[in-house]
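W.,

You were right to be curious about this one. When I first looked at the sequence I had no strong expectations either way, so I just let the prediction run and decided to look at it fresh. Below is the sequence, 435 residues in total, followed by the output.
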Amino acid sequence: MAAGLTANSGAARSQKRDSVWNFLTLGGDIAFFNLALSIASVYTIFPLFASHLGADNTIVSLIPAIRALGVFAPQLLIAGRVERVRRVKPMILTLTLGERFPALLIGVAALALAAHHTKLMLGIFLLMTLIPSLSSGLTFPAWYDLIGRAIPRAWMGRFLGVWMGIGGALGALGSLGAAALIATYAFPLNFALCFLLAFAAYVVSFVMLAMGREPARQKDLPRSLAPVVEASRPGWRSQLAILRTDSAFTRYLIANAISGMATMAGALFAVAGAKQGGLSDAEVGIEGVVLTVAMTLGNVLWGFVGDHLGHRAALIWGSVGAGVAAALALSAYGIWWFGVAFFLLGLSVSATQLTQLTATGEFGSIERRASYIALMSVTYAPFAVGAPLLGGWMADHWGYSLVFALSAAFGLLAALAFALWGPRAASPQSEAARQ
């Protein structure tokens, strides 16, 4: 008996050491990944680069649409495999290469083609926007599953809040560096340097991810899960059955879809500011810093709000931020008013990024986490893809005002939907699954 207690004590110490190690290494992955995303921001650097290549508003709006399609659509396809395999880390390390190398390719191509072959460069740029998005969509369920097993549940709020906060602080410095590059160097060298620096941050992020330790997956489900998850076998029928059996989750998905429509104007803030808001390229870069700082503060704010007032409150106020940001952009002119709009946009984006993770984690059992996150992503995708495309087309035909007005209306409507259908607590099915 004493030997058994000693073995259990040793195993517990080893597990705690691995948890601390993973807190540092997997958290470092998040921080440097966020740094890369901030240096080459999809809200400022991407649209501005496309605009310099001659893209109209519809093409500029393809950027968030392509990203949403790639990130969200493939997740249901791979969720079943994630739930079957014993170890997901090898899968993650392979798939995530597609998230990182396109930044290097864009940077090199910009140096060679952007000055004299703009249409070819624009085509390459859009393709290199799709590839990392698809890779991200395929990687995310496995990464989320890894994080869910590598980080103790009691640490999860601190883990995401601390490391997304650190990533945001690094991102603010990265955005400031990107703004300096845009202001200092001529096109296309300035944008090429941004993409190459982003790739360097991706490399550091990859090393940190590779250093993480994946714990063994639980072999058998507790018997109490059997009546809750009728068919825990991965597959389309099992995944779609969740929508029938977990009504609280289904209502949450409807509200989340409405919030996807509020992203209609997301890619147009930077372009509208440059074309009719009196902003120079350097000032658009500064707005990228404002956006990143807001996202960093938002990670701390929404984490606190979620822990003390519930994820529903964070979803509501994040949607209000999206609506007010778009409403301000209707008449904003100059760096200060656009700065307020970008700040509110950053708060809204951070609410979505952080709370979609934590709120979805409130539903279902640990073993079905990949399917729940995949269902959230797939049902969100048509709206997150269609809304920016519709917004870009409307901006080309009727101007930016209509797009910002509709985006504001959907943001406020999403706030109302989350107030009615947001996750006040885990659903009864989810509570039963955890017992």
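Here's what jumped out at me. The chain has one domain: 21-213+228-434. And, maybe more interesting for your project: Confidence is low (pLDDT under 50) at residues 220-234, 425-435.

Coffee later to discuss?

I.
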